[in-house]
Amino acid sequence: MEDICRTESSIEAVQNANFHVFSHEIVGLVGKNHAGKSTLMGAVTGEYPCTSGKIWIGEKEKKIFSIEQARKEGVFLIKDESSLISGFTIEDTMKLNFAFAGKEVKYSQYVKKYKNTLRLLEVSEDNATCIRNLNFHKRVLIEIAQALVCDAKLLVLDNVVSILSNTARQEMHALFRLLTHQGISLVLIESQEDVIQDFLDRLYIMRRGCVVAELSKKEMEHELIMSLIEGAAFVPRESSLHIQSRDEAHHKIMEFEQVCTDDGVTQHLTFFAYRGETLGIWNKNRHSGKAITDVLEGKTRMKSGRISVNGELYKNTLPNRVGKYELATVPEKDEMFSNMNLGENISLAALRKNAYLGVVKKEWELRYIVQKLCSQYFSDRGCRLFPNQRIPEGILAKKKVSLCRAIASGAKIIVYNNPCLKMDVREREVFIQDILRTQKEEITQVIISSQLDTLYSVCNRILQLDEGRIVKEIENNYI
What we know:
- The protein is of the alpha/beta class and 479 residues long.
- It has helices spanning 37-45, 67-72, 90-96, 107-120, 136-148, 166-181, 222-230, 286-296, 321-325, 342-357, 363-377, 395-408, 425-440, 452-456, and strands at 2-8, 11-17, 26-30, 52-57, 60-62, 75-79, 154-158, 185-190, 202-207, 210-216, 252-261, 269-274, 278-283, 302-309, 312-313, 327-330, 379-380, 383-384, 413-417, 444-449, 461-466, 469-474.
- Helices cover 33% and strands 25% of the residues.
């Protein structure tokens, strides 16, 4: 779902919200009451058709205006208030559900399928049991059975898990994993994350009608989640900087050995970067710092020495370094395609990688990459942009685009040249947070900068570069 909006009585209940679910995945959606969670998912379940925005199911764009239509697309909604008719038996309920099973399904086949499904869900009650005599857990299982026999692709459980007993949640945990193994995805909507966190692969957070964050499993920290729900500042208990000692590092991912260039700018340049670390290079002579990125980009020839990436000799004559070496540079002066919007600029970087590897990314994969990067890197106060917007002229926005393009290209090593140059204090603080975000993705970052204070706040190690060679390692007192 992209740029989903819904207006109710002139109030924007959901504003430009983006939400993605992959096959085999369990995704959570949390936020305060009236944050817009049910309304957002109502766009795809048909309960609350969206005012504007786009919905894709698989590779096809869909317009969903009703619950019945959503069910035909394989999307089923299960709420805390059961939709089952209390006076019906289990058998009556499943017979009534036959209308959604598809015209090509014969009734005898359907009966066999729903009985097998009930056994799979361990519903041991007799088919003649009345719905009113079932507890909440069993009613949920019946609704799941209804969805499965109709070939559900996505189950949306709205405020269901929190009502279940602890024993029922444990049973649901095994069931949810069974369903995901069969290719079925689930969305769990709750006001608090603690009751569903153990189930989740990813978590979305909503506040005042907006999706404000998307967190991976390793990022699901309670204090962070609560701060995002409340809109309060998050103060981590420890520094966000991941401190990686040399002994802890897996191995050297990039190494310069006695590199000298034809123009004489670098003089026996020797340094290395560990996998996953953020290495700072304090450049007292700005000209020699640029020489590093020029060598990597093939703009300057090496007279002697060698560069290795992942243990392989680096050849800077290759037209696309990301495809082979998974390395990208963020130049001092950002080069944007002015005739393209934000999303197209990022997508192009992903396509360049594919062209080298001979792989064609599908349209939905590109949309997901763009939306994820925009939600991560363009949600800061004062720099909130959407994929369909033009890139503004500001230094910060362009630098963010350059970083997103590097990530979208699949880079595992990103080399920056003076990333915060000409930024004011606020812009520098925002971009430092972007570097920390990228650090959490375990991407190796090499930051060449003439501003030592910038390096102190983000780098695991800092080397001093002077007149084309590394002269010493600087103690980082910040760490």
